[in-house]
Write a structure and sequence with these properties.
- The protein is mainly beta.
- The protein has 5 helices and 28 strands.
- It is extended.
Length: 504
């Protein structure tokens, strides 16, 4: 078998392809290309330029310097001779109290009192609305005015408003407010937020409390109480901003003729005011009430005025319809004897001390910003009473007006011995206790036809400005004279002496 099959190598046999050659013969070369691109370079440049500078000519002041720095004959001997005496006088001045409390005023002195603006809202005036409350913004530039009624009319249903003017605005139009907020009920009181100049709290005759945000372009209402079980049942006569439970937050404090003092937390997200705490003034829980006439008023004490103490955050004062002035405490834990009326919190009795009552309703109470124990009150008896927190009887009673009411009293923010009072005769009386006179130092006629002045506010940032709201629907902005705004030497000491003389 092995001899039958053997390997053998044969020559290669090849045949040339005829179809490949024929196909290559008919192929042609093709190509595609864009048209040739042409480029051009160009430059733009200023044809001419110049460089210039300005400089004063050099002056040789070495001669003058050598003259100034040179030794004057006898100068060293003179300085050595008076050195000891000058040092003694400087030490004596540093220990002196002659200018304690004196602040330099670099503004030009005003010798007279002048009206620089007379603000009015034509629509409110045409409907006979009155200016019921005023408030300055924390910047001192904007003033808010509440329009409503104090004397007569159907207060609960008449449409009223809140207006603001920016007195620093160029081209101020006194007859055209910068902002008008329509309110469905009479606005009885206003208070700007102490840090946020766009927020205003207001109390209405209907018992509601509202917070407006003037920076909003559409609906200006940030939060409101609405008509709930927690809302005041009677008109709200006072609103104030007070520190809240959370750090940095401010709550709204409201007081009304129903005898309630309520503290509201602002819930801007939900658009409502939430009752955080509440107080009720009940006659049988007022200290010393048994020694005072029981003829005026019922069981609850209607609140007509409220003032916060700038010295003690736990204290506040209230004035009542029955003529009482009460010192109250936020920290009181005594449960109020008022019957429950559906409130969501337990009402407490805040009254700690009762001052001697007036013969009629107390319209205004204001604490001194210069003495922790002094405050002033005014009401229907036509008197301004200077009180000390340490005794029930007033230290001093000044006749503000005859046969008329005192609607508001305000202490000067710069003069410890000066306060202003607005009357029902259209006058603003400014008293200076440093003059030892029972008569007003200055009388300002509002030129409102003898109609009452219902509200009065000093500007906290520009103390030479005083705003007065009148029953004829106008607001006068007065620029006070220098003697009413500039504190004199030892004025604070005089106020301290006045308080101590009677307290002893």
């Amino acid at each position: 078998m092995s001899t039958m099959f053997t390997d053998e190598t044969l020559e290669t046999v090849g045949t040339e392809s005829s179809w490949r050659r024929s196909l290559q013969s008919v192929q042609e070369s093709r190509s595609c290309q864009t048209l040739p691109l042409h480029t051009t370079e160009a430059e733009v440049q200023a044809g001419h330029y110049s460089d210039s500078c300005t400089q004063t000519d050099a002056q040789d002041s070495s001669g003058e310097y050598r003259e100034a720095s040179g030794d004057h004959p006898g100068l060293k001997e003179f300085l050595d001779g008076v050195e000891e005496m000058i040092i003694k006088e400087l030490i004596k001045n540093s220990r002196s109290h002659a200018f304690d409390g004196f602040e330099v005023n670099w503004v030009d002195h005003n010798e007279t009192v002048s009206c620089i603006h007379r603000l009015q809202h034509p629509d409110a005036q045409s409907r006979g609305l009155q200016v019921t409350s005023l408030s300055w913004s924390c910047t001192g530039s904007v003033i808010a005015c509440a329009f409503g009624r104090v004397d007569d009319g159907d207060w609960s249903t008449e449409r009223c408003c809140v207006c603001t003017w920016n007195l620093d605005r160029r081209g101020l139009d006194p007859k055209r407010p910068d902002l008008v907020i329509d309110v469905p009920s009479a606005v009885m009181c206003l208070a700007f937020h102490p840090q946020r100049p766009s927020l205003i709290a207001g109390g209405l005759y209907s018992g509601e409390v509202v917070v407006w945000d003037t920076s909003r372009t559409q609906d200006s209402i940030l939060a409101q109480t609405g008509m709930s079980a927690d809302t005041h049942r009677e008109p709200v006569y006072q609103v104030q901003w007070v520190p809240g439970s959370r750090r940095g937050e401010m709550d709204v404090l409201s007081a009304g003729s129903g005898g309630r003092v309520l503290q509201w937390r602002v819930d801007g997200v939900e658009g409502r005011l939430v009752l955080a705490s509440g107080f009720a003034l009940v006659r049988q829980q007022v200290p010393m009430i048994n020694t005072i006439s029981k003829a005026r008023g019922g069981s609850s004490i209607g609140i007509t005025a409220l003032a916060l103490s700038p010295w003690d955050p736990d204290s506040f004062l209230v004035g009542s319809e029955g003529g009482l002035v009460l010192k109250c405490a936020f920290s009181s834990q005594t449960v109020a004897a008022a019957p429950p009326d559906g409130e969501s919190v337990t009402l407490r009795a805040p009254a700690q001390f009762c001052f001697s009552p007036s013969s009629g309703p107390v319209h205004s109470v204001h604490c001194s910003p210069f003495h922790r124990n002094l405050f002033v009150s005014g009401g229907t008896d036509g008197l301004a009473h200077l009180h000390s927190l340490l005794q029930p009887e007033p230290l001093l009673s000044l006749r503000v007006c005859d046969s008329s009411y005192v609607f508001v009293v305000r202490w000067s923010p710069t003069r410890p011995l000066v306060f202003a009072a607005a009357t029902g005769q259209g006058l603003v009386q400014i008293f200076d206790l440093g003059r030892r006179s029972l008569r007003a130092a200055t009388t300002i006629d509002q030129e409102a036809g003898g109609k009452p002045v219902y509200c009065l506010e000093f500007n906290p940032r520009q103390p030479h400005l005083l705003a007065a709201g009148n029953a004829d629907g106008t607001v006068n902005i007065w620029q006070l004279s220098a003697d009413l705004t500039e504190q004199g030497p030892r004025e604070s000491a005089q106020l301290e002496q006045l308080a101590n003389e009677v307290a002893d």
